Amino acid sequence: MKKILELCLKNGAELAEPGEFTKRAFLNGRIDLVQAESVIDIINAKTEKEASEGVNQLKGKLSNKISEIKKDLLEIITNIEVSIDYPEYDIEEVKDNNILKMLDNIENKLKILENSFNNGKIIKDGIKTAIIGKPNVGKSSLLNAILNEERAIVTEYEGTTRDTIEEFINIKGIPLKIIDTAGIRETENEVEKMGIYKSKEICNKADLVIAIFDSSKKLTDEDMQILDIIKDKETIIVLNKADLEEKTGIENKEIIKTKKKVIKISAKTQEGIEEIYDEIEKKFNLNQIDINNEIIITNIRHKNLISKAIKNIIKTKQTISENMPVDIIVIFLREILEDLGNITGEIVNEEIINDIFSKFCLGK
Predict the structure, then answer these.
(1) Are 167 and 147 in contact (CB under 8 A)?
(2) Residue 185 has what pLDDT?
(3) What is the three-state SS of 230-261?
(4) Using CA atoms, how far apart are residues 168 and 15, in angstroms rounded to an integer?
(5) What is the torsional sign of CA 302, 303, 309, 312?
(6) Which helix (H) or strand (E) holds 265?
(7) Which of 161, 167, 223 minimizes the C-alpha distance to 191?
């Protein structure tokens, strides 16, 4: 195959650049930038929901909404520019009343898109979930039970896991980025210390923490340290080893004080695992994410430009309330148009285009 490729290149063929075919379609006006970006989203999709949302963007669902908002903006700009070019016409009523109402309407539409990013981030990046606990409470066993495979080493010895193990799993159509961490305890082992430090760092950055405790033993000082770590985090407390005699239960005073959801499980028999899935779905409203009837922003670039456009709308309304000259108002309105044009690629610099397509595979 390499010989054939070398022969082709020797005779004038050129290697395709990353995203070249999609880039050509964009540059030739067959698709806009949102649709071009959706191609890589579909390729990288980890779940059916993520792929479906990519297809929606490819069909132009977001692009059409942006075009609708731009049309409303252009109507406002036209009304104001008429007052500049033809001052003999009385459009004061239009400026003072209708324009502010139209800007409110545009702002509401953009805020709906901006707020959808919370769900979009979950669909695209998944829920970053850290499993934490002291050594030998069953963290790795829980990971294996969730993945339904022997992914992590499980032994009777403490401190087996010294680095993080990360895996994606599909929960109710949403990717869960689940991270098994090193057991948190006092230790003199430098390698284990590094793993414990990393565990705490991941816990701080996680969207969700699954704090696991051994229900067959009484809570220790190490367990209390973990309860302190999770006090301000979105957490599910899991009491593992329900197949053994219980010594720490749901009614434990220290656990009750956390006011966290508590689930009894047995990682060994897989009892209670489905209940964890149900609680995750409930916490993140996964069943309320309707990709068929909603426009959901999954791209941080789009979200940032929408947020910028909303700020410019607020500035424009403030300018109107301060009775600034109408030509100043138009400047702000055109900035909003530019923000939205950057989303679809009508107004975008070459550097951004190259950065977007550099993330593609060769060709595509």
Answers:
(1) yes
(2) 56
(3) CCCCCEEEEEECCCCCCCCCCCCHHHHHCCCE
(4) 33
(5) negative
(6) none
(7) 161
* Whole-number pLDDT of residue 267: 86
Contact 284, 122 (CB under 8 A): yes
**pLDDT at 175 (0 to 100):** 81
Cα(87)–Cα(287) distance, integer angstroms: 55
Closest-CA residue to 111 (of 348, 357, 313): 313
Measured between alpha carbons, how far is 181 from 131 in angstroms, rounded to an integer?
A: 6
Q: Which of 104, 111, 106, 112 is nearest to 321 (CA)?
A: 104
CB atoms within 10 A of CB 353: 17
Place of tokens 């050509």: 24
CB hemisphere CA count around 307 (13 angstroms): 10
Distances (CA, A) of 115 to 17, 32, 95, 306: 35, 23, 29, 10
Q: State residue 313's pLDDT score.
A: 94
- CA 226, CA 220: separation in Å to the nearest integer? 10
The DSSP output letter for 294 is S
Tokens found for residue 198: 């990393």
- The enclosing H or E element of 61 equals helix 61-85
Rg (CA), the chain: 27
d(CA 146, CA 275): 12
By C-alpha distance, which of 128, 282, 117 is closest to 208?
128
Other Cβ atoms closer than 10 A to 164: 16
Question: Average pLDDT for consecutive 10-residue bins of the chain (364 residues)?
Answer: 93 88 90 93 86 91 94 86 62 63 93 90 85 84 75 43 68 80 61 67 87 90 87 91 89 90 90 89 74 82 95 91 82 92 87 84 72
Which residue type is seen at 9?
L
